[in-house]
């Protein structure tokens, strides 16, 4: 070894490197088919991924693989590396050789690595500070609370405090319904009884909550459509008033009517005409009021007119009774 040159020392080692997982000796070889491996859930270690859910889905998938003479724990130990991707798989391969000999040890190390204490503390704070949102039904609130608790099984919060955190921030309507169902007050129930009562009420009001949500959605959509129509009309009116070149959209500053500009107002033009011809009167034979022009009409004069010829001589003759 000491007499070797640098070239053979720098040559790659072709011997198989020991793995971090030591597989137990089996009486028969364990072969995992490609169909089973494709069913395994994949975990990349991203912030939005849940390690506990990953493990649960992995265990469920492995339970479908039944081989005679081979325990399920051995299947999990051998199949788990195929469910890891990216940096998570690098973590497993870079562990010291022989670090894991059982599925339990591998399972524990995986959760400790990818579900840190800081994440546990963050979820604990979310559980303690949970509250029912405005418009959220009892069923939706209960499901969100259960999911939050299940995402961190080691939250170490007692059942009594869990019920208290959930109950104290309920909306008055839902809290009153739970109190009425519990016979007066929920505090008279044990933590287990209180959880069962809340779960039953959330399940019973599930359909009602959906209908109320849909009704509110339809009402919001109708109000939104009405407001959009009113806004469109208002926009059109403002655009109409702001258009300077459109004569129809012009608004008169004297009579406050549309259809003409201020300088073309009939009232203004009539006043200008009276100022130019102050003594000129207008003859209107069709006016409904008195018109001085009617004086000059030949049929409307009150003065004596010329007597027809022969009329005066006829009236001046004496009356003859003998006739």
Automatic annotation (TrEMBL):
User: Which superkingdom, per the lineage?
Assistant: Eukaryota
> Where does the chain cross the membrane?
none
User: Residue ranges of the Retrotransposon gag domain?
Assistant: 79-168
Annotated region (Disordered) at 288-323
User: InterPro entries given for it?
Assistant: Retrotrans_gag_dom
Q: Where is the composition biased (Polar residues)?
A: 301-323
Pfam families, sorted? Retrotrans_gag
Q: Give the protein's recorded name.
A: Retrotransposon gag domain-containing protein
Recorded source organism is: Gossypium hirsutum (Upland cotton)
Q: What is the lineage of its organism?
A: Eukaryota, Viridiplantae, Streptophyta, Embryophyta, Tracheophyta
């Amino acid at each position: 070894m000491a007499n070797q040159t640098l070239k053979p020392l720098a040559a790659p080692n072709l011997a198989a490197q020991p793995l971090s997982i030591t597989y137990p000796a089996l009486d028969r070889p364990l072969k995992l088919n490609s169909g089973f491996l494709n069913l395994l859930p994949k975990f990349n270690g991203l912030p939005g991924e849940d390690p506990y859910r990953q493990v649960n889905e992995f265990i469920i998938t492995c339970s479908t693989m039944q081989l005679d003479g081979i325990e399920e724990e051995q299947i999990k130990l051998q199949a788990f590396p195929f469910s890891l991707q990216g940096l998570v798989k690098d973590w497993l391969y870079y562990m010291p050789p022989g670090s894991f000999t059982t599925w339990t040890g591998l399972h524990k190390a995986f959760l400790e690595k990818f579900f840190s204490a800081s994440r546990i503390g963050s979820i604990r704070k979310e559980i303690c500070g949970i509250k029912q949102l405005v418009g959220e039904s009892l069923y939706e609130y209960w499901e969100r609370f259960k999911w939050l608790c299940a995402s961190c099984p080691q939250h170490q919060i007692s059942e009594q405090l869990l019920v208290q955190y959930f109950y104290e921030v309920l909306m008055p309507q839902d809290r009153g319904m739970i109190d009425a169902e519990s016979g007066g007050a929920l505090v008279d129930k044990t933590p287990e009884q209180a959880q069962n009562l809340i779960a039953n009420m959330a399940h019973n009001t599930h359909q009602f909550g959906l209908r109320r949500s849909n009704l509110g959605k339809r009402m919001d959509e109708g109000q939104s459509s009405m407001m959009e129509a009113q806004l469109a009309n208002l926009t059109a009116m403002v655009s109409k008033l702001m258009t300077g070149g459109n004569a129809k959209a012009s608004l008169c500053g004297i009579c406050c009517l549309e259809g003409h500009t201020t300088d073309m107002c009939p009232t203004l033009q009539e006043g200008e005409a009276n100022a130019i011809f102050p003594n000129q009167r207008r003859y209107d034979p069709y006016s409904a009021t008195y018109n001085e022009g009617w004086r000059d009409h030949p049929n409307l004069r009150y003065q004596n007119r010329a007597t027809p010829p022969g009329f005066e001589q006829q009236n001046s003759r004496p009356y003859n009774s003998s006739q």
